[in-house]
Description:
This protein has helices at 12-29, 51-60, 65-73, 78-86, 93-100, 103-115, 124-139, 144-150, 163-176, and strands at 37-42, 45-50, 88-90, 116-117, 141-143, 155-159. By secondary structure, it is of the alpha+beta class. Helix 6 packs across helix 7 and helix 6 packs antiparallel against helix 9 (163-176).
Amino acid sequence: MMTPNKRPFIKPQLIFSLILAILGLFSTKVSVQAAEKVILKYSILRESVSVKELSQLANTGETSRSLKTYLKLANKKPEELRSLLNKNVDIDPVFLSKFLNSFAGSMVLDPVGEVIHTPSKRANRESLRGALVTSALSDNNISLIEIFENYPTQEIHVNGDRLAEIYQNIEGFLSNVPRLPF
């Protein structure tokens, strides 16, 4: 009696994880366009701030003269912005990618895209998804400064007045989402 040829079953999650790992390895060797400046808006004020300046604030607490002046005009303290830039949300990058590519993920990305968006407000969902997943790949968490550093356009527009609100929404949503078997 002949038995049919059985092929080994490979779980889609394993394949997806492998693809993400390979992409992570290649992303360290391939130069990808990343954000260079943030158009930071508080109330009626707008200022172009380099991602490098924001990274310096996040990492060291040092504020450039122009950023310090702008924050003073906006009645914001550099420490508040630094705290927001460095707040982390722990998340598995594979789960995050699967979630953000689902219908529920779109429901999270769209409101965030009203606060952090491309200059043309086009492809916000895709740009945010890419920045979020890329940020989570290296250390299993995301922060605003990592999102800015990994955003796939040269310029990002950010509504500073709503940053804390969006961070709280993302953190609350992701912490309450059950680990769905995508």
